[in-house]
Every structure is written in C-alpha cells, then in structure tokens.
Amino acid sequence: MTPSAPQPSNDDAIARWNDIPRTALDAMGPDGDFAKRHLINPVLLRMLGDVRESRILDAGSGTGYLSRLLAARGARVTAVEPTGTMYAYACEQEAAQPRGVTYVRADITQLPPLEGEFDAVVCSMVLSTVPDWKPALRACADALRPGGQLIFTVNHPAFEQLLAPWRTHGAYRLTRYLEEYEIPQTHAPDYHRPLSAYLKELPPLGLHFTELAEPGLPPAVAEEAAPATPGIESYVHLTNFVVVAARKALRD
Q: β-pairing, 241-248 with 144-155?
C-alpha cells in the first residue's frame, strides 16, 4: 500500500500564498474580482447591514479590498493577514488613500490581542484555503462580542470548479463530495470539505446559524461577460459560492 502524502501545514499554505505575483494583486479591482463584485459582496454586505461605527474584524484580509469597502461604509476595521506579500500590498493601499483600517500581520489561527471584542467578523474565501481550518474558525468566534455576527464565505463544495465541466459537457459533474481533499489552483490549493463540515462546528463554538445564501449571477451580467468568459452562464443556473451567517450567543 502506498503511504498517503503528508497533510500540508498552515505554514506551507501561507508560504505558497506569499508567492502570489504582484500582477495578480494589481489585477484585483477596488471591489475585488468578478465573482466578489457580482456574487459575494452583495450578499455579504446585505447580511452585515448598517456597519457605521461597528468594530469589524476582516480575518484573512488578503489585498484588503473588503476592509476598504467596509471602512468606506463607516466601519472601524481591523484586518489580519498572514502573508507578507498581501499584507504589504494592503498597507500600500492604506498609505496611498487612508481609510483608517488597522492592518495586522498574523496567522488567523493564532490571533494576537486585538483590543477588545468585535461586533462582526468576516472571513471571506479563507477557510477553504487553510489545511487546519478549525482553529481559524474558533479564533473568529472567540473574537466576537456576545451577540456579534460571524459571516464566512467559501467555494460551494457541491459546485467547485464550475466553469471547466460546464464548458466541456454543458452541465456540472461531481463524483466526490463527502471526502476531504486538495484541489490544485493557480497559486495555492483549495481544500474541499462537505458543507456539513463547516456548519457542524458552529454550535460547539457558541454560534447559532442564522442564514445561508447561495448567490447566482444575474442573467444580464452573464450575458455581458459571456464573450470574454465562455461558460459564464453556468453561474446563472448553479451557484459557485456559499455565504454563511451565524451569531454568538449572549452571556447569561
């Protein structure tokens, strides 16, 4: 029997994301990439509601685009990012156009003291990139005040890598769902886990589930994007992302 490959560590994942080229960061718009602009951001911002004067933790902030969006809406944002490349990029953006975001370089599985509890924690497109992800979810829960809201987004595990099979077959094909496995990507891998793997961790952390959204692409947006992105109509019929909201229990 061939021994299984060793599980990558979180440090391995951080190192691989740290090698992302500057051109990839510059390609991000002020609202993130296409999927974030049209599918993730509208749902996430709706779930957060009015964020004026709210203390928000952006856990795994990447380039800082979401931190800047939230700060522009009046939130007091602390952004934590482990990779030096993306942390430095976000700091550059803050220096060029200050928005009052506090950037911290740290592993989100081991958050440093951050001066009090947060009204909301957002962890967008992060957990599915972390090999040992449960400590990250626990750290997000611990950072919340009682009654505070956690919102996380991941690739929908039932519809990952949607475009390739749609372009080939005109439909989506899935052969492995209940297993956990690595998905090779351009810069660093994602990790497939069934949706239940994430949801069942919420109650032990004192979080009660409040909403799950599976955003679809508006047909008009798909039609406009189709010449540059064949198969984009698949995002109208199927969802590629899931957005989960939960609240921390109040203290007795």
A: antiparallel
